[in-house]
Amino acid sequence: MFDLTGKVAVVTGASSGLGRDAAMAYAQAGADVVLLARRLERLEALAEELKGMGRDVLAIKMDVTDEESVKSGIAQAYEHFGHLDILLNNAGIAVGGGVDTLTVEDFDKSIDVNVKGIFLVSKYVVKHMIENEYGRIVNIASVNAVIADKDDIFVRHSYNASKAAVLGLTKGMAATYGKNNITVNAIGPGLFESEMTEDTLFKSDDFLTLYYGLNPMNRAGKQGELNGTILYFSSDAASYTTGQFIVVDGGMSIV
């Protein structure tokens, strides 16, 4: 049920962190992979690793906030493979600050990458899924779509807003495209060590003490611990599951 042999998985934000891990997981499950991100040299290095596993891999430089970049990149991917079966919308940023300190530019940037990016990539992928009457779309939201933090260490109002918007977009797409055998689901990671967090949250002993103290598992997520949920939503194991949101946070959101 989790075998992805013959499928093509498109991964945004694939140059590092959770996106890179997911690309590896897709390849291990048998899928060919389209790697998308702004840092082409990193994508090309990852592509060589995946090709060594016997996969067909395409690395494309893309800015998910730029429509022409997205349109061109997805067209290139479709021309190469002839079908696009899975889309992992993983590209995202986290900008700190409350509404009293955030600049308009920082707020707009959060919305552009975290929401508009998903819209644009989905826009150009989903038409091919409709033609093929098959698709699995997985949107990476965040536990911070449903919980917030009053502590100044972790105030991220634009992040809260953008990730909550991902859930609304996920439900809307799921309701519309279910008739085309396309499922659309979202995942809410808690704290994972990644390029986005290692130089910020993981450098703050005060934050880690607070987070670990509140988390039932008393730790952050480890590399690869998101992959099982990603593969579930991307496979036929979830063929009758759509519009859903699974939080992978060590129980943080339940206490």
β-strand amount: 5-15%
Number of domains: 1
User: Roughly how much helix do the residues carry, as a percent range?
Assistant: 40-55%
Tally of helical runs: 8
CATH topology: Rossmann fold
Question: What ranges have pLDDT less than 50 throughout 5 or more consecutive residues?
Answer: none
Number of strands: 7
**Chain-averaged pLDDT:** 95
CATH architecture: 3-Layer(aba) Sandwich
**Computed structural class:** alpha/beta
| Shape field | globular
Description:
InterPro entries: NAD(P)-bd_dom_sf, Sc_DH/Rdtase_CS, SDR, SDR_fam. This is Short-chain dehydrogenase. It is a single chain. With 255 residues, the chain is of the alpha/beta class. It has a single domain (8-192, 222-248), classed as 3-Layer(aba) Sandwich (Rossmann fold), CATH 3.40.50. It contains eight helices and seven strands, in the order E-H-E-H-E-H-E-H-E-H-E-H-H-H-E. It has helices at 17-28, 40-51, 67-81, 104-132, 157-177, 195-198, 205-214, 227-234, and strands spanning 8-12, 32-37, 57-61, 86-89, 135-140, 182-189, 245-248. Strands 3-2-1-4-5-6-7 form a seven-stranded parallel beta sheet, with helices on both faces. The longest helix is centred in the middle third of the chain and has 29 residues, at 104-132.
Task: List strands and helices in order, with pairings.
Blueprint: E1 8-12, H1 17-28, E2 32-37, H2 40-51, E3 57-61, H3 67-81, E4 86-89, H4 104-132, E5 135-140, H5 157-177, E6 182-189, H6 195-198, H7 205-214, H8 227-234, E7 245-248
Parallel strand pairs: 1-2, 1-4, 2-3, 4-5, 5-6, 6-7
Helix pairs in contact: 3-4, 4-5
